[in-house]
Amino acid sequence: MRFPTGAATRTDLETAAERTYDAVVIGAGVSGAIMANELSTAGKTVLLIDAGPGEDLTVKGYESYLETFYRQAVKDNQSPYPRNPNAPMPRSVDIGPVAPGQPETSGYLVQPGPYITDTTYTRVLGGTTMHWEAKTPRFLPEDFEMNTKFGRGADWPIDYDELEPYYREAERELGVAADVDSQREIGLPFPDDYVFPMHGIPLSYLDQVVDTGIDGTTVELGGERLPLKVRPYPQARNGVPNPAFNDGEGYRPVGAVGTHRTDEGERCQGNNNCVPICPVQAKYHAGKTLAKALQTGRVELLTQAVASKVHIDPANGRVSGIEVKVYYDPDDPAHETGMITGHTFVLAAGAIETARLLLASDLPSTSGLVGRNLMDHAYLLNWALLPEVAGTMRGTVCTGGIVDLRGGGFRSGQAAFSVDIHNDGWGWATGAPYTDLLHLVDDHNLFGTGLRRDLATRISSQLLLAFMVEVLPTETNRVTVDPAYKDQLGNMRPVVSMTIPEYSMRGVAAARQVSKLIFQRLGAKDFTRYDPADPSYVEFDGEGYAIRGGNHLAGTHIMGTNKRNSVVDANQRSWDHENLYLVGGGSMPSIGSANVTLTLAALCYRTAKSMISELN
Amino acid sequence: MGPDRLDRFLALSAELTAFDVVELAGTGESDAYLATVDRIVGTGAVDALLDAHTAISEPPGQARDHQLRHSMLGDEFLGPLARNVIKLWYVGIWYQLPRSWREVNGARDGDVTFTISANAYTQGLLWPAVGANPAGARAPGWASWTEPPRLAKL
Question: What pTM does this model have?
Answer without folding.
Answer: 0.97
